[in-house]
Amino acid sequence: MPKFVFDFTEGNKDLKDLLGGKGANLAEMTNLGLPVPPGFTITTEACRHYLEHGTLPEGLTDEIGAHLSALESAMGKRLGDPGDPLLVSVRSGAKFSMPGMMETVLNVGLNDDSVQGLAARSGDERFAWDSYRRLIQMFGKTVLGVEGDPFEDAIDDAKRAKGVEDDSDLDAADLRALVATFKDVVRERAGRGFPTDPREQLDLAIRAVFDSWNAPRAVLYRRQERIPVDLGTAVNVCSMVFGNMGLDSGTGVAFTRDPASGEQGIYGDYLQNAQGEDVVAGIRNTVPLAELERIDAASYHRLLEIMETLENHYRDMCDIEFTIERGKLWMLQTRVGKRTAAAAFRIACQLLDQGLIDLDEATERVTGDQLAQLMFPRFDEAALKDARRLTKGMNASPGAAVGVAVFSSGAAEEAAARGEDVILVRRETNPDDLPGMVAAKGVLTSRGGKTSHAAVVARGMGKTCVCGAEELEVDVRERRLTAPGGVVVREGDVISIDGSSGEVYLGEVPVEDSPVVRYFEGRLGDAEGGDLITAVDRIMKHADSRARLKVRANADNAEDSARARRFGATGIGLCRTEHMFLGDRRQLVEKLILAETEEERTAALDALEPLQRADFEEILAAMDGLPVTIRLIDPPLHEFLPDLTDLSVRVALAGDGADPQDRRLLEAVRRLHEQNPMLGLRGVRLGLVIPGLFAMQVRAIAEAAAQRRKAGGDPRPEIMIPLVGAVQELEAIREEARGVLAQVARSTGEDVPALIGTMIELPRSALTAGQIAEAAEFFSFGTNDLTQTTWGFSRDDVEASFFSRYLELGIFGASPFETLDVEGVGRLVRIAVEEGRRTRPDLHLGICGEHGGDPDSVHFCHEVGLDYVSCSPFRIPVARLEAGRAAILAGRG
Ligand code: PEP
Ligand code: MG
Predict the structure, then answer these.
(1) Tens digit of each residue's pLDDT (9 = 90 or more) over 477-497
(2) Is 850 in the pocket of ligand 1 (CB under 6 A)?
(3) Has 453 been annotated as catalytic?
(4) Are residues 289 and 216 part of one domain?
(5) What is the pTM of this model?
(6) How far is the CA of 556 from the centre of ligand 2 (A)?
(7) Could you give the count of Cα atoms lying within 13 Å of 333 in the half-sphere of its Cβ?
């Protein structure tokens, strides 16, 4: 029979699957000889059995009984003993931290008899009755499902009757009366009395904690955090220690290093004569942990010793919860602590220098998301000290933005059109606010969380956003907001919002470039570095040395290419040529579309070709010696023509006097108009339908490469065909392209080799990858379109219209356009990799959808065996770091 209960002396920190994070760490501390109140952990396996069958697994009750007896002997007390009761806490604790999502019951073991024993033993009658009323309240809510209000109302009534304001002004007699009232509340609302048998209390509390795994908020939290639904929670039964037994008692939290900067020192808060919930509730002000030295020097020094032990043992920064009961220090919890991005890099290198971890581990300890955070512009720290802070909301999308407050999408557009920087302020946003969000530098809302419409859309646009700033009263009609203290911001007043911290300031706070970006750009002066830059530099170099995946850039001009190269790109994975058809060149594209004869078409193409050639030459020069994958034109041609409605109106208004060119254009726009352009005449289909278009582009590429070669350069172009669904499409274009390449080689005398490959952007191309590989020398996964076509989502529409709802419902934890949907889209990628390489073992494989710069997706790309990821220049350092981390983590197996 499996073992379902582990004494704290039996577990260890590596048993998180079975004992949950809290249980595993309590066991680890116990075994380190640290002062942990004795107790035991009921496994997640027991929970899973209970959730599946609705009954406890056989033998569990007896096993709990045996561990309880052992605990009683160790403590020299019996659970609920009327003379000197042992009391226990019953706490949830899953493998992954789910803060506040599941249940806890404290003071189990109190009843009408044992409360007397507790009073006598503690010499504090008030404390005993307060503990008892807390038990009935917590038990009533958590275990018996009574709502919280009647308890709170009863406390308010008691205070009102006595004419006092504070809970602490209620004395023992008041609390004893409250206990009686609470018991009545339970009997009325739960249809049963509060159980007085201590063991029954314990058993019911354990079941309630198991059940809380499926509480709606826990279910939602798991979906959003992508925690598997079937893990279950462990239950920790721990002897109670009390921080509320007088001034020689108290409770606190501590970090072994500063979680904001990484510096070593004394960080934490302490609250005298209090229990943990009082700290969380913020009823009284805590004091800095350093003050504990004055209050209780012995406990303070013991705590510092323990913190050092924990750090050396966990080889990482830890956070700690502790309680002091009458001068005796107890450890209630520890875990590896959360930290800011800058602290993560600093701490990793500090631990490296202390010899606690090696470079591989230091690299594992930081993430691409943290690096990305460090690359956003930020407010000047010195200026922040004097800034007038209005409030703090949720840090929904990082960055620092300054602008005039505007309260409607229209106002945002108008102000932006006047050249003003604006912050769009709304209670919450909806799809109608989209134009204003596009026009704004940043978005501020007073409602909604990190998956609200504002947050999701702003993140998608890379725009700074603070959401859910609930202290702000936003009055859209009056065009103003009111901040705490009555400060009023009217439309046109300047505000500054910090999407990395959630802070909102009145007036302009100066913004500065991130020093990390300046470092990557090679623009950082020698004296400017500091320990953060040193840490980033060491870890990046190591990640590069470990990475198997190469990192290329999505770039379509020389400037972006040069920046990408400075950021460490090893080539271009996607050069979108359609961007070269915009601006002044639009007219030439119009001519091409309107061409009625062979001559007109050739003339239009001939005019476009030198322009394209010049673009390619510049890019090939910027990426000299590195591969440049150039994608032939992809979007539907009508994107380059005037809008159908505008043009119809213009022609209709002009009547008989309408410009003949406009009439011809209108005809063409009508002819090319499509209901679903994303699924229409685009990509390879254009190349097959518009004679000469792709050939012109290939010629421009080949001639640009020949020029570069003549100038002494080392051009390495690759030609990529978009939106292929069948090998026959690719074969036709490939033959044409090969012909053009040979012609240019003959005419220029420079035979520059160019691989010809395809994008995999349609389910059909993934499913027939074995055939397609016969005609392709490389595949590049266009996971933007592949996600769109696999899910049937129009990416230009769905993110803004209903993804926030989908995220709230937990249908996915992240937009599949941000993080690759491994099960669906990823499955297609896997099939294409396998079948493509079966046909052509040296098939070169990459990804150039937005996912190429997303940390989780980079790990997937490593795992399926791609050769490179390609992403926007700004994401390149993130992809490099994650490529290194993916290799290190995979090596650990
Ligand atoms: C893609 O579909 O993933 C891709 C890179 O092409 P685009 O985003 O230009 O459609
Ligand atoms: Mg595409």
Answers:
(1) 999 999 999 999 999 999 999
(2) no
(3) yes
(4) no
(5) 0.86
(6) 15
(7) 20
